Amino acid sequence: MKKNIVLRASEEWTKDDEQKLKSIIIDNFRELLNRSEEEELYWTGTQRDLIELAHIVWESGQILEMNGNPMCFKSIVHHICRVLHVNEPCNPSCVVSEVRSRKNVKSSPLTHRYCNLITQAEISDPMRLEIRRGRRRRLW
User: Fold this and answer.
1) CA angle 82, 84, 88 (to 5 degrees)
2) Which residues contact 137 (CB under 8 A, 6 or more apart)?
């Protein structure tokens, strides 16, 4: 008889781990926002995850416009979607609201998933796992 093994979700990270993750995400966005769509970088994760990351970056206030003001959320979303070839949502704030009101127990916040990858799988930059280079593949 086969025995089922149930694993418990781990939350063995600290506030320092979360802050380190946010710094990595912000640095990635800073680099990506300076890239061109012709470089053929593609986001392989979900649109919601990318918008959630953009919101983390916006909340930090560390990405600035040319005039020195913090870049607005919609502008961050517009530029990152363009560079990573993702369909830009009409209302990115609505996407963030939906993400925050998740009721599905199986969907943990993106930061928790990324912190698990850093602490348990020893992946130093989980966001990079969801970016690939090359032409978009046709599904049909």
Assistant:
1) 50
2) none
pLDDT single digits (tens) 18-42: 899 999 999 999 999 999 999 999 9
Which amino acid, 50? L
Tokens 């698990």 identify what position?
116
pLDDT digit string, tens, across residues 53-101? 999 999 999 999 999 999 999 999 999 999 999 999 999 988 888 877 7
* Residue 11 structure tokens: 């939350």
Q: Which of 119, 133, 87, 93 is nearest to 11 (CA)?
A: 119
Smallest Cα–Cα separation from 120: which of 13, 48, 22?
13
**Coil, helix or strand at residue 64:** strand
Residues 6 or more apart whose Cβ sits within 8 Å of residue 71? 58, 63, 64, 65
